[in-house]
Specification:
Strand content: 5-15%
Structural class: alpha/beta
Largest sheet: 7 strands, mixed
Number of helices: 21
Radius of gyration: 23 Å
CATH topology of the largest domain: D-Maltodextrin-Binding Protein, domain 2
Shape: globular
Number of domains: 2
Amino acid sequence: MQRLSRRGLLRRVGAGLAAAALAAGLGLGLSACRQPQADRAAGRTIQFWTLDLAPKFNGYIHGVIAAWERQNPGYRVVWTDVPWGSVERKLLAAVFARTAPDVVNLNPLFAANLASKGGLLPLERVLPPGAPQGYLPLIWRAGRSAGPDGQPAQFAIPWYLTARITLANTQLLQRAGYSSPPRTWAEVPAYAEAVKRRTGRYALFVTVVPDDSAELLETLVQMGVTLLDGRQRAAFNSPEGRRAFAFWTDLYRRGLLPREVVSQGYRRAIELYQSGELAQVGSGAEFLRSIQTNAPGIAAATRPFPPITGANGQANVAVMTLAIPRQSPVAAKAASFALFLTNGANQRQFAEQARVLPSSPQALRQLRAELGAASPATAQEALVQRARLLSADTLGRATVLVPASPGVKRLQAIVYTQLQRAMLGQVSSDAALAEAERQWNAYAQGRWPDAADHRREAGRNP
């Protein structure tokens, strides 16, 4: 069965950022001129780009296109799949040549960067009434971000998802005196201490490497931290933020986190878990197959559990979306195709082939029912089925915890770098938080000046 792993999805979630930053820096948005200009005037062709889905999903994509074309006589969809290694070059070349697609597969952060520069179409103009009801409400909001005027709008349609769950080594849990891992972050310190004291291993690994996983930034949100205010200024230097910085600083200084969290990324968590040095890891359900292949002994002791959350029980989800460039001459039909591709029936089929989760409530209900009724042939497949069902159930309380907004990668780098300093004992956690606030606000002031700054600038340049 073809499948798309959580790691594969996370590669998708991060792969376009460099291209987005370059496009934003040039002040360019996606136009939408895939055909020669004479052909575009007819407005009968939709250019559709995906990221690294060919050739595995050729049959599925071509089938969806053919079905839509039958319902829309006279129109045709031309599909282009862009390999990861050349996505930046191809996208920038298309922007400069004004040959970018009409429907493009993006992650929320990529979409937010392009939308902030005027490159994407606000979808309220082309979506039919009731369109949001076809998607999980919290997931639909992941496509909402600020336009060039700073006002929020819906710029993207959700497509496929993965939700993080906890995979835990039950042998280490039992030795530490636990039958299951913690459900909330408040329970983690006592758990981490018990695991270290009774097993000599570590409970968990959450990286603080600035350009790696956003998981730690997501934990701050789960702990009640508001990252930014409506003016894009720092809101994290708050009582909740001080508690969260102290939480991670204390765990590290007490030796309850692997020393490498400040120097190595998520890949190291996988290595430690598969070698039996880590009691749990946050990942997608399909990662179980990798453990079964790479570390059969660890896999035999591994069981899926709900993800760690904050007090409100909210979990994180990674989303892939579809967007429409602002200058597309076939925007209404492009929206029609994007909605068709992401309807319940089509999402259900893709979710099974790619082993991801759908953003359609209808497809999610079908997936849950089928997983619950399935009879796996082996114990290994039964465990994967159980993990997939748990992952699907998690979507009921899952959202994109770190909202997509331009500059969020800079925010992560600033927060992580200052938290590293606190962990390593160079400054107190409160001082690190205050410095993160200062650095972010200096960046935000330059990128999003206050109205007063605009007025002063206008006075200098009449």
